[in-house]
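Repro:
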Amino acid sequence: MTGRVRLTGAGRTSRRLRAPRRWWAELAGSAALLSVVVVVALWLHNGGLRGFAAPGGAATSIGRVTGLVASDLLLLQVLLMARIPWVERSYGQDTLARRHRLVGFCSFWLMIAHVVLITVGYGQAGGMGVVAEIWDLVATYPGMLLAAAGTVLLVLVVVLSIRLARRRQRYETWHLIHLYAYLGVGLALPHQLWTGADFIASTPARLYWWGLYAVALGAVVVFRVGLPLYRSAYHRLRVHAVVPEAPGVVSVYLSGHRLDRLPARAGQFFLWRFLDGPGWTRAHPYTLSSAPSGDLLRITVKDLGDGSSRAATLRPGTRVLVEGPYGALTADRRSGARRVLLIAAGVGITTMRALIDEFAGSGVKVTLLYRVRRPEDAVFRTELDEAARRGQVRVIYLDGGRARPGSWLPDRFAQVSDLAALRWLVPDVAQHDAFLCGPPPWMAGVRATLREAGVGPDHIHAEEFAW
């Protein structure tokens, strides 16, 4: 279907969500650190230092505590990406993904240290070589064969999460492989409960570890499985229309049941599964490109290959499964300044287009800097010009080749610095809250220029889709 589709009620959010309180993020971070302290305290309480004098005791004792902390961090990893709504809104998906990756690498190396130290310690105590001790542990200790398989899976996930390997994968491939981490955690559980003395040494230890596993499992089941299935079944989303926006860019309009009850905000994204044939199981992250209107949702997709190319071929009536909303780049990020600067590049305009809807009528003065290679690449040009005519936004198109290597501005500013150009475009830039969306290297350049112009870090808001 071609032609423009009217979003009745666009420009206002049907269901206003409560902004996350700042102390939520601080509380979650403090709880994560406290969990590590609790694990070490339980290890000490259960005699963790008493075995140092025995043959191999030092290696075994240190191996135990590294294994305990590795297990704790592994479960924290699961919680970080369990899509818990108040945690998502407090941190933002990109921040959670970065912390998930950092905690994951720490957990991995502690797990490797655990395996090596336990093997060495047991070998010294029993007078066996390293190879013989590894075989004895895996073959004779309850649950160790499963733990070995879980370790292999976790190593595979970590190796494929290294930046160089990640760049060579499609998002869909990486996401599928990453699911094996859950299996790795599950396979490790039996050996911890059957042979892990620190797991079963005391009632507090048993309560803590069973409780942490139950919380992690419950969060995954409820927020990664149950809630998406419920929302998909309740809202019954279907493709309403597909509209071309620019070369290689289409908007997909979606209708459904009681969309006013979907807790979505302008600036957030969903994971979408279109039931249009083979490959429907792969979820695709797309941001809302207009504020939720109560009767329709809109996403805008650029053909970048793989699943995104299928968006243009979707037929009205196609059923849709949805996960989300996710992300924290919403109007609530605004620190209170009465001026807002939106800066977008390429398909990053989708987020800014939705935020324009949200800011409309709020009394906030909005300026949009929109970077594109060619004028015809500008998405939503008609809508943006109409919003400018109504006084909702001041729009400045930044089209053309790059001004210089490393610059985020077009070539018409080649004779001046990025800072001078920004101050010419937005003279009072330091008095704005700035929202950024575009390729990460480009956003890094914009952020640096904003800081030079006097915009404080608390007034610069950006979020990447990180994986």
